Amino acid sequence: MSTGGRLVDLVQHRIDEFLDARAPILAAISDDTAPMGAISRDFLRFGKRFRARFCYWGWQSVQGLDDAGYFFGDTSSRDVPAVVGVATALELFHAAALVHDDLIDASDTRRGAPSAHRRFEQEHRDRRFVGDAGRFGDSSAILLGDLLLVWSDELFAESLEQLADRDNARAARAEFNRMRTDVTAGQYLDIVAEASWPHVRDGAEVDTAINVITYKSAKYSIEAPLAIGASLGGASLAQMAALREFGLPLGIAFQLRDDLLGVYGDSSVTGKPAGDDLVEGKRTVLVAVARQALPASARRTVDELLGDPDLTEEQVRMLQETIRGAGAIDEVERMIAENVDRALDALDGAPLTADARGALTRLAESISVRTA
């Protein structure tokens, strides 16, 4: 099994172990809390674990240890359990972000299954509660996301206690704290962009959309996990700079690929309906590029339809073709390739271990061509 596969298994084991420890706490409060534990497990059972992987390789890039010994029983570094715990905490944070993001976007599905707020809504109906089922679902999902945030912080703190170097622990905590502020501010920028787009000056839409994805996704998906992992290993300023120069453009490419998948992805692979971003009215870089290239009449049509929750399949296909015809797909593909090249250039000659540079190169390739 590859290092990535072993890491994913260890992270899943740590997730299960952590949730097992929290289950009695919820049960002692009330049997009614059972859905919170069950939905948490379901949300954390799947995923590509990109954030955990980047955290691990951020650490490995400055430590340079042969990890095979640890995974097969020889603890070559006593810090490995701390690193795995921190990587797992990032996955808990990601789950919290997904719960809140689906609620903000009014998404019905996540990974081919009902989103958290829809599951709570169904719980209301199944148990014949009084009041509005949708409001109950939304309120419960807010609380579940908050609980996952709390648990993420608990696990992060517990894991730092296992780290030998306290200065490294403090540096990792500072990176984690900054990440949480960045992504929360970025999420707010996203909803501002959806509400204020008519007031954005001509020609600034693409820059606005890139600023949103930088803080909402790029930093927290790749740059921050790398920086947190590197901090755990005591990275030098030069090592940290190289990882940031790699991580930020790759994070932008990661989200640009998500933008394409949100409009043109195969629903059987993405777990989301085709054209879901169009129904949700997301003001992505893809949409911004298309609007700049379209004539005024076509632009007005896009603006009228984008974000209409009652869009028909025919209207979704029409929007997809309009965006394609504007050359937006080709332009976003060019931007993805350009950002991946920038990321890989940052690795060339970087003061990082050879194994880590190889692993990060492979991760960059998998992120740029993925289908989900």
TrEMBL record:
The record's annotation in SUPFAM superfamilies points to: Terpenoid synthases (SSF48576)
Record key words, sorted: Magnesium, Metal-binding, Transferase
Please verify whether the record's keywords include Metal-binding: yes
The biological processes this protein is annotated with in GO are: isoprenoid biosynthetic process
Q: Does the keyword Magnesium apply?
A: yes
What molecular functions are annotated in GO for this chain? Answer: metal ion binding; prenyltransferase activity
Tell me which Pfam families the record gives.
polyprenyl_synt
What are the required cofactors? Mg(2+)
InterPro entries named in the record: Isoprenoid_synthase_dom_sf, Polyprenyl_synt, Polyprenyl_synt_CS
User: In which domain of life is the source organism classified?
Assistant: Bacteria
Q: Describe the family membership recorded for this protein in Swiss-Prot or TrEMBL.
A: Belongs to the FPP/GGPP synthase family.
The name of this protein is: Polyprenyl synthetase family protein
Query: To which species is this protein native?
Result: Amnibacterium setariae
